[in-house]
Amino acid sequence: MTKESYLAQFYGKSQNYTDIPNKWYKEYNVKKGLRNEDGTGVRVGLTRVADVVGYAEALEGGIQAIPGELYYRGYNVTDLVKGKMGSHFGYEEVCFLLLFGYLPKKKELEHFCGILRDCYEIPDEFVEMNLLRMPGKNLMNKLQDAVLTLYNYDDDPDNTDVYETLVKGINLVAKLPSIACYAYQSKVHYYDRDSLFIHYANPEYSIAENFLSLLRKDQKFTDQEARLLDTILMLHADHGGGNNSTFTNVVISSTGTDIYSTVSASIGSLKGPRHGGANIKVAEMMDAVLEDVGGYTADDKKLRVAVNRLMDGKLYDRSGLVYGFGHAVYTISDPRAEMLRACCAEVAKEKKQQTEFVFRQRFERAALDVMKERKGTALPTNVDYYSGFAYGMLNIPRDLYTPLFMCSRMVGWVAHNIENKLYDGRIMRPATKYVGENKDYMMMEER
Ligand SMILES: CC(=O)SCCNC(=O)CCNC(=O)[C@H](O)C(C)(C)COP(=O)(O)OP(=O)(O)OC[C@H]1O[C@@H](n2cnc3c(N)ncnc32)[C@H](O)[C@@H]1OP(=O)(O)O
Ligand SMILES: O=C([O-])CC(=O)C(=O)O
Asked: Pfam families attached here (predicted)?
């Protein structure tokens, strides 16, 4: 027998000793996934950073489904997105709002943008040693690694004072888009065998403009493209304290560890396909669906069959999931998906990608119908369903979909980290119930 087959044998045998029957969770009142019976999340904190509204309390008890809304520091994100139209870039304004709690005056925003832009530059040796010499085949893993390495570039990395956390956090918000681009160029060069180019960050640019300029060989982009990316960044900047990566952030930070360790853990969480990693899964799933149904002209019946095949684990990754649908808080709709759908409709016209967009909408309708029929409850389209489509129209490669989500969410992680340090501060330490038996140790020869 090989070593591996011994391991498989031990693993098989272990099931007799380690099983936890499902009914015990109910018996011991354990909230699986930190969820209540009705699917709502167990309350683990108080926040004034953002409000994710997906249901109301019904008069007769329980919850009532309502259209989703998202507020940053009390401002509806829809209004924030509308408010920047034709004037400033909105992501920086949202960063200010999330970090400081109020909308900046013009001068305040200018100063804040100046501070951010002063942090864009990445030291040459960091790029050479950590990104070019050590390319990563998955950018989220590489970015975890890069963030941990930034610890070494900080003179006082273990200082976790609130103000220091703010300063270090702003530095990360400013630097990570450039690092993500460079990590991508390195991956493309060394793993995908394509040409390498590394542009320098431009301190005149907003974060969205800077990202497009670093990514493209000719560094050119249109204002419309930068504004679309800016809107996407705004929509991903925060999602309350309960989403997995933000919760991870405060759990880790509650031990008193440094911000680099904390953020690296959040990146690991966001990578998961049931969280931020769903944006890449949607893109791959749509390729599989397109192939399965025979192209864009497939009728609605074929699309419904494809949804059923996905749910039965017979198509794509066999997980049974239709990526880009369902949410832990939103019931009827995710406001970010609604906004992104509208943005995509507009840009698809200009980019002549209406065939793809119409197909995506038709698949969405088929998925919503089939999932409602099979699950008995509506599962909403979530932010990840249209974000990848929008990135695609900006010629942003798939490798960068989840990293872009991460770059945007960094500010939310920092804001919640600070809030938690200020107003909770206690080490997170929930409990588990031991449900095994205690046994007397047996000497080797007695077993
Ligand atoms: C930025 C973000 O993180 S947004 C979410 C991105 N993730 C995805 O798009 C991945 C697909 N979606 C999912 O996996 C889930 O909907 C999650 C993780 C987002 C939410 O999970 P939960 O809140 O635990 O799911 P919920 O309790 O609402 O699910 C109810 C039922 O619908 C099923 N379901 C939920 N979403 C989906 C889906 N997308 N495809 C198929 N079935 C689904 C669940 O399996 C469950 O079925 P069951 O009752 O037969 O066991
Ligand atoms: O809130 C959640 O669980 C997931 C989500 O949409 C996000 O983090 O943006």
From this structure: Citrate_synt
Residue 39, both tokens: 């699917």
Whole-Å CA distances, 300 to 142, 217, 306, 307, 361: 40, 40, 10, 11, 11
* 167 vs 392: CA distance, rounded Å: 33
Whether 357 and 389 have beta carbons less than 8 Å apart is answered as yes
Is-contact 139 180, C-beta < 8 A? yes
Within this chain, domains 70-270+397-423 and 278-393 share the same CATH topology: no
Tokens 């038996």 sit on residue: 437
> 70 burial class (0-12, 13-18, 19+ CB within 10 angstroms)?
buried
User: CATH top-level class for 278-393?
Assistant: mainly alpha
Residue 61: per-residue pLDDT:
82
235 lines ligand 1 (CB under 6 A): no
Extents of the domains making up the chain:
70-270+397-423, 278-393
326 ligand 1 Cβ < 6 A: yes
Superfamily of domain 70-270+397-423: Citrate Synthase, domain 1 (1.10.580.10)
The one-letter amino acid code at 155 reads: D
Which tens digits make up the pLDDT trace of 117-156? 999 999 999 999 999 999 999 999 999 999 999 999 999 9
Of 281, 382, 384, best ligand 1 pocket probe by most atoms within 8 Å of the beta carbon: 382
